[in-house]
């Protein structure tokens, strides 16, 4: 049994800008796994993913880096195309050129962990039945982003989460950002949203608020977590996944929600300052936290 098992697809990402086209691996599970692999190994970790068996080079690299990966065969690898038309990275068109097969209960029968972190990329990656099954074996952690993406004719459309009540009653940790929070709950106030999400069954609610920090609700208590200002913002891709990795890592070490939130926020600050997944050490994280 491992302490944390992340389950999710690794993607092929095609990044098109006016000046160049770049191909790289990505996805929630990719950024989460690399982030947690940089931390001391007193918390054990495994990754369950699924790809086209002819396209497993990213998994080979992860294994060489010391990450424990269980690879399932899929008819396709998730293939995202992000096309940017100017300097503003918010101005983009996103297409899904290929979808991987959803995860199934038989694939997860032999997987044992205290916490299962579900890295959803698209709305049908994890059925309510899969989440319910995993909740009988351990605590389920969800980053909600993928549940709010639907693909039609290769285009990605934002959608409400149709099965949210079925899934959230089996969810222990839930992380959302401001936009996702409002989409799911209809609430603009983070405290009101946290209370509603808790009433739907979530034990620990984590709401990230960008430069305003984050808000955590656990055991009828709100914890306000500061944001640590980066020296420069280079790449925000994978920031939320890095936060989840840091938060779960510290919570499983016995840290309080506030301590875990600060640790996760410091990891995000470091991640913002460079391209690619988190690549620094716990010493660097603690140094950022000491500057607050």
TrEMBL record:
<dbReference type="Pfam" id="PF00294">
    <property type="entry name" value="PfkB"/>
</dbReference>
<dbReference type="GO" id="GO:0016301">
    <property type="term" value="F:kinase activity"/>
</dbReference>
<dbReference type="InterPro" id="IPR029056">
    <property type="entry name" value="Ribokinase-like"/>
</dbReference>
<keyword id="KW-0418">Kinase</keyword>
<feature type="domain" description="Carbohydrate kinase PfkB">
    <location>
        <begin position="2"/>
        <end position="277"/>
    </location>
</feature>
<protein>
    <submittedName>
        <fullName>Ribokinase</fullName>
    </submittedName>
</protein>
<keyword id="KW-0808">Transferase</keyword>
<dbReference type="InterPro" id="IPR011611">
    <property type="entry name" value="PfkB_dom"/>
</dbReference>
């Amino acid at each position: 049994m491992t302490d944390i098992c992340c389950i999710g697809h690794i993607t092929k990402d095609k990044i098109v800008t006016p000046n160049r086209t770049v191909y790289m691996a990505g996805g929630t599970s990719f950024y989460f796994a690399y982030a947690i692999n940089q931390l001391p190994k007193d918390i054990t970790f495994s990754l369950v993913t699924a790809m086209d068996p002819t396209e497993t080079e990213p998994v080979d690299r992860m294994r060489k880096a010391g990450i424990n990966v269980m690879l399932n065969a899929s008819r396709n690898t998730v293939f995202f195309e992000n096309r940017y038309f100017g300097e503003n990275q918010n101005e983009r068109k996103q297409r899904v050129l290929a979808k991987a097969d959803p995860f199934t209960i038989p694939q997860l029968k032999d997987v044992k962990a205290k916490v299962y972190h579900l890295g959803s990329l698209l709305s049908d990656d994890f059925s309510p039945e899969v989440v319910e099954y995993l909740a009988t074996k351990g605590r389920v952690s969800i980053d909600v982003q993928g549940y709010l993406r639907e693909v039609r004719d290769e285009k990605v459309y934002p959608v409400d989460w149709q099965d949210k009540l079925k899934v959230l009653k089996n969810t222990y940790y839930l992380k959302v950002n401001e936009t996702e929070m409002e989409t799911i709950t209809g609430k603009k106030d983070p405290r009101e949203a946290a209370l509603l999400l808790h009433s739907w069954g979530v034990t620990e609610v984590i709401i990230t608020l960008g430069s305003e920090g984050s808000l955590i609700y656990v055991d009828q208590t709100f914890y306000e977590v500061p944001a640590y200002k980066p020296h420069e913002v280079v790449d925000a891709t994978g920031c939320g996944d890095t936060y989840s990795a840091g938060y779960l890592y510290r919570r499983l070490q016995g840290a309080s929600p506030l301590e875990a939130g600060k640790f996760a926020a410091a990891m995000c600050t470091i991640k913002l300052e460079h391209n690619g997944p988190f690549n620094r050490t716990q010493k660097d994280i603690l140094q950022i936290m000491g500057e607050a």
